[in-house]
Amino acid sequence: MDTQLNGKVALVTGGSRGIGKSIALAFAEAGAKVMITSRKAEACQEAAAEITAATGGDVAFVAGHVGKAEDIERVVGATMDAFGSVDILVNNAATNPYAGPVIDADLPRWEKTFEVNLTAPLAWTQACWKASMKENGGNIVNISSVGAFATSPILGTYDITKSALIHLTQQLAAEISPGVRVNAVCPGLIKTDFARALWDEGRGDQVAQSYPLKRLGEVEDIAQAVLFLASDASSWITGQAVVVDGGGLVAFAHLG
Ligand SMILES: NC(=O)c1ccc[n+]([C@@H]2O[C@H](COP(=O)([O-])OP(=O)(O)OC[C@H]3O[C@@H](n4cnc5c(N)ncnc54)[C@H](OP(=O)(O)O)[C@@H]3O)[C@@H](O)[C@H]2O)c1
């Protein structure tokens, strides 16, 4: 399988920590030039330095908010200036500001969740399409969630955005083929800051036992799936949502 990314330029949102940082590392190991972005410049700088030291690769960063149009333009522009193209985009950054029943969701937090988790991936895709992919082709991977396939007493708002992100993935895959492939990865529970409330203080042990593969996910489990979809090893796959969850979905093991 050819998962090498030599000569490719990859842009990873939310690349400063967690799953995004692991994806950036896997891409750099595969030979890609990588631009990472998140809101905090210092965290991006540290992640870029760490990945460069580990791989000897070409890793740059520009801080920005995924939901702000001027930041999208600035980051994509800086990527073009630094590396000359954007061949791979990973829409990884997400938010979950509200936990509770959807029936009680306040609309400002509902809209914030949609802005960051759904509108932003479209806006980043449009920016990369215009700047590079329309002309040169490319590859997009959207990070969804297993929550997209289930209901939840507390994560409903977030899960609806992740479900819509899969439909956006399918729609764009149909629209911008054959030059650009668009796929999604749907993680189960991974031990990151984002999901801390679900696994901290032993809470994850019960979830792990409910998974057929009897453990929670590691960031590398997701990064390797994203690398496969971003590389030529998956050259006949587009518009798909790949579940990486230790089998949790087939065992009806839900996150919360
Ligand atoms: N962890 C899980 O169990 C799990 C399960 C299913 C799906 N996922 C999905 O996996 C993806 C990554 O999650 P994670 O667990 O790796 O989270 P994480 O460890 O909290 O990392 C999130 C990253 O996104 C950045 N970020 C957050 N909000 C941002 C914004 N508005 N603009 C720009 N950057 C932003 C953060 O950096 P800054 O704070 O510097 O901005 C950080 O780099 C998300 O799409 C999440 O929905 C996670």
- CATH architect. name: 3-Layer(aba) Sandwich
Number of strands: 7
Please, what is the CATH homologous superfamily? NAD(P)-binding Rossmann-like Domain
Low-confidence segments:
none
Largest sheet features = 7 strands, parallel
Number of domains: 1
Structure description:
This protein is an alpha/beta fold. The protein has a single domain, classed as Rossmann fold (3-Layer(aba) Sandwich), CATH 3.40.50. Helices cover 45% and strands 14% of the residues. The protein contains eight helices and seven strands. The protein has a seven-stranded parallel beta sheet with strand order 3-2-1-4-5-6-7, with helices on both faces. It is globular and about 45 Å long. The model has no long low-confidence stretch (mean pLDDT 97). It binds NADP nicotinamide-adenine-dinucleotide phosphate. NADP nicotinamide-adenine-dinucleotide phosphate binds next to helix 1.
Write the layout of secondary structure elements.
Blueprint: E1 9-13, H1 18-29, E2 33-37, H2 41-55, E3 59-61, H3 69-83, E4 88-91, H4 107-136, E5 138-143, H5 156-175, E6 180-187, H6 196-199, H7 203-210, H8 219-230, E7 241-244
The protein binds NADP nicotinamide-adenine-dinucleotide phosphate.
